[in-house]
Write a structure and sequence with these properties.
By secondary structure, this protein is of the alpha/beta class. It has 21 helices and 26 strands. The protein starts with a strand and ends with a helix.
Length: 634
């Protein structure tokens, strides 16, 4: 056995997550075999000394790091104690704060620990590009060293930022497909036409995924045209499908990453679709299939044959070496899976084990979208939070909850028709139909249950009053816009200027400490309002800019709920005190659908040089609105 050892591991997400709740963790192999820590010890301390490989890390040469490991878990793992700054362990502080490593940029990199002797350990940070050279160099200078690598993850000389086989899963609308589409490596591959897509469904099978003989048209030879009486005739030829197209492209382009994207993987019978290709999903440490399979006669003939241009289908014959198929190291297979789908063909555990799984959580704060229903603009993010709470309560699961992109907005606005046809249809037919409509949010103004047909009038148009009632029952925050003002702004063609105004507002927010502590940043959209939040679902602040009237406003908007009038009258009773806090005389406005308390300032906002003045006033007034809420809110 070697007297000294080197162990190499690629970073995990938690290793570089700047969050005290995500801990640096070492597995049983590290703890018991490498560090030789007695499993009976409740904690252990490993002294590390950093040895830089890059010139920019020279200032940290010989820096000492205390790796303090916690009590052993049932799996034999040990977590690093938070003995550093900001609730992190010293080793996480070092990687994140000193070396500047991040989840976004360094998950393809490695760290290594060299055991020179008992209680003498050297720590290395290895960028991916240096990985192979580091191993070779280490072996050359210490020939007796025992090197242990993370064989499941250390794929050499390929783009391994994410795993070769990965399923992105989560609730509908969480952005799984978007996540893949926007991946930088996928974009690069797409520019070279090296991304292949397919969607699984109940009728998918091996032939539609891999390839099969199909009738095609071919030209009739000139000497037979007169006899045949036609220029083309039907023939049968092997037609490759998504898998085979990606397979061929990967073998023929070994220096590039090739991606096969499978949408809705759990809607098809994976055992039937993959067939014996299932064996190829086991990859070795070089990314190649561990267990090649014999290609059937049709597949073998195609891969050994010529394409329509007379070129070899496979220029790299390793793809059919000895008549066998094997996954190349540069073929990535990524898939999406909606957890809400009632899959006809559940994925078996053996198939699951051959994939890495990436959960895409629900994020309700992606952008500032609204739902326009019955004259009121309801906050989409607030709706998602409210309805997801109801779904979770009814189903005891996240599977049927709504992701932010469940319904697409146009210019940040979801129309009443789209909201009813897509969102409410899903809620009534795919969620609560199986769990009941017992909650009072499903009651109309007469306390009777709202059935889905009630969302439509006799002429087939959406009944926005009923849709609005449902949103009010949920206490979704909304702004009752002045449609005459909205129409005037649109007619003036100021949408581009609106976006620029709110972009400037966000930039000014960065230097306004008090405002930024209270209110989070909102995405700038082509609209005259920006909804804010200060912790109440019954009412919220909003800011407005009206270019046609040369005014800016700050207001407390009280959404249409059962308590709206009570809240409004409570504020009105304290009008003098509210005016004193605001430093202006507030305008208390009442309508059939909502109530608002408004402050307004004349500013020539068509002149961009006045925007800084407008921003300062709006943020100052929003802070005062928060003070009003804190002192007089109910």
């Amino acid at each position: 056995m070697a007297s000294n050892k080197l162990k190499v591991q690629r970073f995990r997400t938690n290793d570089l997550n700047n969050n005290g709740g995500k801990q640096f963790e070492l597995g049983k192999n590290w703890c018991e075999e490498f560090f030789e820590i007695d499993s009976s010890l409740s904690e252990a301390i490993v002294p590390l000394v950093f040895k830089p490989l890059c010139i920019e890390h020279a200032p940290f040469f010989d820096k000492e790091i205390e790796l303090k490991l916690s009590e052993i878990t049932n799996r034999g793992d040990r977590k690093a104690y938070a003995n550093g700054q900001h609730g992190l362990s010293q080793i996480k502080n070092f990687f994140i704060d000193d070396l500047g490593l991040t989840e976004e940029n360094n998950l393809s990199d490695y760290f290594a620990i060299y055991k020179a002797s008992i209680n003498r350990y050297y720590l290395y940070y290895i960028p991916q590009i240096l990985y192979s050279n580091f191993i070779k160099h280490f072996e050359s200078i210490t020939p007796d060293v025992s090197i242990e690598r993370d064989s499941k993850r250390a794929f050499k000389d390929i783009d391994d930022r994410l795993s070769l086989q990965q399923i992105f899963y989560g609730a509908p609308g969480t952005g799984k497909s978007h996540r893949i589409k926007e991946n930088g490596n996928v974009k690069k591959a797409n520019e070279k036409n090296l991304v292949f897509r397919t969607t699984f469904h109940p009728d998918s099978d091996y032939s539609t995924f891999v390839g099969t003989y199909k009738p095609t048209m071919r030209p009739v030879a000139d000497k037979y045209k007169a006899v045949a009486g036609k220029d083309e005739e039907i023939t049968y030829s092997f037609v490759p499908q998504a898998f085979l197209q990606a397979y061929v492209a990967a073998w023929n382009n070994q220096d590039d990453s090739v991606y096969l994207i499978i949408e809705e993987i759990n809607r098809g019978n994976c055992a039937q679709i993959f067939g014996d290709l299932f064996q190829l999903l086991d990859r070795d440490c070089d990314g190649l299939s561990e267990y090649p399979i014999m290609a059937d006669k049709d597949l073998s003939q195609y891969l050994k044959g010529k394409d329509e241009n007379g070129q070899d289908v496979l220029s790299n014959k390793d793809g059919i070496k000895d008549g066998k198929l094997r996954m190349p190291k540069n073929l990535y297979i990524w898939a999406t899976m909606n957890t809400s789908d009632q899959s006809l063909f559940p994925i078996d555990s053996a198939f699951k084990r051959r994939w890495d799984w990436k959960y895409i959580p629900i994020d309700t704060q992606k952008e500032s979208w609204c739902i326009n229903v019955n004259g009121t603009s309801y906050d989409w993010s607030d709706f998602l939070e409210k309805i997801n709470s109801k779904i979770e309560s009814a189903t005891s699961s996240e599977d049927k909850m709504l992701g932010f992109y469940f319904c697409k907005a146009e210019n940040g606005v979801i129309s009443a028709e789209k909201f009813v046809n897509k969102v409410l249809f899903y809620l009534w037919n795919d969620v609560f139909k199986d769990y009941g409509f017992d909650d009072s949010v499903f009651n109309d103004e007469n306390n009777k249950k709202i059935t889905f047909r009630m969302f439509y009038k006799a002429n087939g148009k959406v009944d926005e009053t009923i849709a609005g009632k449902f949103l009010e029952n949920l206490h979704v925050s909304g702004t009752s816009g002045n449609h005459d003002e909205d129409d005037a702004e649109k007619a003036a063609g100021v949408s581009e200027k609106q976006v620029r105004f709110w972009e400037g507002f966000n930039k000014a927010r960065e230097s306004h400490d008090e405002y930024s502590k209270i209110y989070s940043e909102k995405k700038p959209l082509a609209q005259q309002w920006m909804d804010l939040s200060f912790g109440s679902s019954a009412y919220h602040p909003a800011l407005n800019v009206l270019f046609t009237k040369s005014v800016v406003r700050a207001q407390i908007y009280i959404s249409g709920s059962d308590r709206s009038l009570e809240i409004f009258e409570h504020f009105k009773e304290n009008e003098s005190a509210l005016n004193e806090i605001a430093g202006v005389n507030l305008d208390f406005k009442k309508s059939d659908k909502s109530y608002s308390i408004v402050a307004e300032k004349s500013v020539n906002v068509n002149n961009e040089s006045t925007w800084e003045e407008a921003y300062e006033w709006m943020m100052s007034m929003a802070i005062k609105m928060k003070s009003i809420k804190d002192r007089f809110g109910i």
